[in-house]
Amino acid sequence: MQGLIWSLCALLCLSLWEESHCRSSRNIRSVNEPSLLRTKRALQDTDAKKCSYTFLVPEQRITGPICASTTGPEPDKDRVTRMDISDVREVLNKQRREIETLQLVVEVDGNLVNEMKLLRKESRNMNSRVTQLYMQLLHEIIRKRDNSLELVQLENRVLNVTSEMMRLASRYKELEARFATMAGVVNNQSILISALEEQCLRTLGRSELPPVPPLVQVVPENIPIDNRFTNEIVTKNQAFSRASRRESPTRSPFGMDPPPPQGTLTSDGPFKDCYQVRQAGYTTSGMYLLKTDNSEQLIQAWCEHGLDNGGWTVLQRRRDGSVNFFRNWENYKKGFGNIDGEHWLGLQNIFNLAKQGDYRLMIELEDWAGKKVYAEYSSFHLESESEGYKLRLGTYQGNAGDSFSSNNGKAFTTLDRDKDTFSGNCAHYHKGGWWYNACGQTNLNGVWYSGGVYRSKFQDGIFWADYGGGFYSLKCVRLMIRPID
Ligand SMILES: [Ca+2]
User: Fold this and answer.
1) Going by CATH, does the domain composed of 274-483 fall within 3.90.215.10?
2) For the chain, what are the domain ranges?
3) What distance in angstroms lies between residue 427's CA and the mean position of ligand 1's atoms?
4) Which of 261, 263, 340, 362 is paired with 399 by a 20 to 30 Å CA distance?
5) Which residues are paired to 344 by β-bridges?
6) Contact 363, 376 (CB under 8 A)
7) Helix or strand or coil: residue 413?
């Protein structure tokens, strides 16, 4: 029963499908392309006449729709597909190539991006470095501005100090000029006072007073000035008391009881003079043993090798007032003092030395400002003791002025042996021993006064009239001889 129902239903369905299919086939044909019409013309002729029917009898239960095709495989459609495939392949290849190109571009872009990143990083670093440098520059500018301010301040201070110095220098010059004027006044007043004192004593009836030697009135334009000058006026008594305190080493006159040698440089010798010492190769100034050609007497003398190629035999030296030079004939004949300090070599020794050949004399003077000047005489010798050790000098040259030529040809005078040309004894007034005239322009064996200008009844200081006048006592003095070159 059921199978019969199924068969009927199937038949009904087929008839309905046949009718609609035939109708639709005709519709399809009307809209198909001409090429399809051409290829199917033979079939269409037959289709128009009859329809083919196929009966499907389900032997088993059908679970889905039944499909049937009235047309077979179409070979044209297959050919198109291959072309399409080749086209597609071509397109694919093209796309692949494009992709590869794009990949290359991407790679390049990637590199560019990396490079850009690096550049950005570098740029950031540069920016920070520039900022840092800018800050440094600002700091530097500020510092320099400060420095320039400081510099300006310093310049101002230097200018102030300079103007102050100039003011002080001009003030100093004024004072120097006033000092020179006052020194001249002191010198002349001392002379006037002495003259008045003498006149006074004579008026009082003491005409038996011995005459006083004329005082040196030379007042040079430039009195030596000492920066450390204390204006200390030492009286002759004070000077003598100081000198006598220091004179212990000189109580035994040199030559009779010579002081112990102090640092004698060599046991070589004795030498004829210091020039021979220098020629023997000794270049250090100091004490050397001498023996003159015409005497058996050994002489300790100071050889000066530091001045004008050396070879100078020192005859006399003053420098600190440590030795009293107010002595008798015997002392001046034999010599006294300390060879390495103040001393007098002795008239007999000087006579013997100078007799050996042609010698020249150098007198070195140093004032209280430390300035040194000199007077040199082209020849020098003494006459014998029987002639009173008369002085024989050559011509002068130097920058101290010639205050010694007036003593040329004069005999040596001490307190106990008056050989000068003055009515009285010059040694008494000048407190020393010297080749006095009446009494002369120089007194290098006088009293050693401290400070330069001194005040005394007589001109008894260590003076050189042409350098400082009669009332300026020099600080250091040396008399030296050397053979004429
Ligand atoms: Ca006399």
Assistant:
1) yes
2) 88-199, 274-483
3) 9
4) 340
5) 316, 336
6) yes
7) strand
| C-alpha 423 – ligand 1 centre gap (Å) | 5
State both tokens at 421: 């040309």
Cα 417 to middle of ligand 1, angstroms? 9
Per residue in 219-272, pLDDT tens? Answer: 554 455 543 333 333 333 333 333 333 333 333 333 333 343 444 556 677 999
Residue 222 CA to ligand 1 centre (angstroms)? 32
Report the separation in Å between the CA atom of 244 and the middle of ligand 1, taken as the mean of its atom positions: 26
What pTM does this model have?
Answer: 0.56
pLDDT tens track for 5-48: 565 555 555 555 555 554 544 444 444 444 444 445 544 554 55
H helical segments located in 32-74: 34-39, 41-49
What residues have their beta carbon closer than 5 A to ion ligand 1? 418, 420, 422
Residue 268, helix vs strand vs coil: coil
Paired strand residues for 398: 375
Q: Note whether 290 and 301 are within 8 A (CB).
A: yes
CA-CA-CA-CA dihedral for 412, 417, 419, 420, to nearest 10: 80
Tell me, in angstroms, the distance from the centre of ligand 1 to residue 422's CA: 4
d(CA 315, CA 174): 40
Cα–Cα distance, 407 to 400 (Å, whole number): 16
Q: What DSSP character marks residue 314?
A: E
* Distance in Å from the first CA to the final CA of the chain: 181
39: its two tokens = 């290829």
